[in-house]
Amino acid sequence: LAEAAAFFERFGTPAVSRECLRLLAGTPALPADLRRHGVTPREGEIFALLGQGITGTRELAAHLVISPRTVEKHVEALCRKLGVRTRSQLAALAARAAQTGQVQATT
């Protein structure tokens, strides 16, 4: 898996590389806090990237190799599931979660 992660990083697919490293480390794909709110693994990836300060639709799409429209749909779903009204509130929630390791959703 380490070799695969390096290959996919060189190949320009960081999301696949990260998944290889996650599998290698044996860490759960989605934190329990997010699972409790019904967040999907892909939505969890977007939430994590938002927490890292990557907030632009096109930038998120490029990181995950998906369309900008798909990113928008995932962001809408995250807002609904986590009880926030705006994308900026979602980004702030994700940033706090990245710092504390806990999601303080409003729902």
Molecular structure report:
The chain is mostly helical. 70% of the residues lie in helices and 0% in strands. The longest helix is centred in the C-terminal third of the chain and has 15 residues, at 68-82. The protein is globular. The model has no long low-confidence stretch (mean pLDDT 89).
SSE topology sketch:
Elements: H1 2-11, H2 14-25, H3 32-36, H4 41-51, H5 57-64, H6 68-82, H7 87-100
Helix pairs in contact: 1-2, 4-6, 4-7, 5-6
Structural class: mainly alpha
- Return the string of H and E elements: HHHHHHH
Radius of gyration: 14 Å
Low-confidence stretches: none
Tally of DSSP β-strands: 0
Percent in helix: over 70%
What does the overall shape look like?
globular
Summarize the structure.
With 107 residues, this protein is mainly alpha-helical. The protein contains 7 helices and no strands. Helix 4 (41-51) crosses helix 6, helix 4 crosses helix 7 (87-100) and helix 5 (57-64) crosses helix 6.
List keywords for this structure.
single chain; 107 residues; mainly alpha; 0% strand; globular
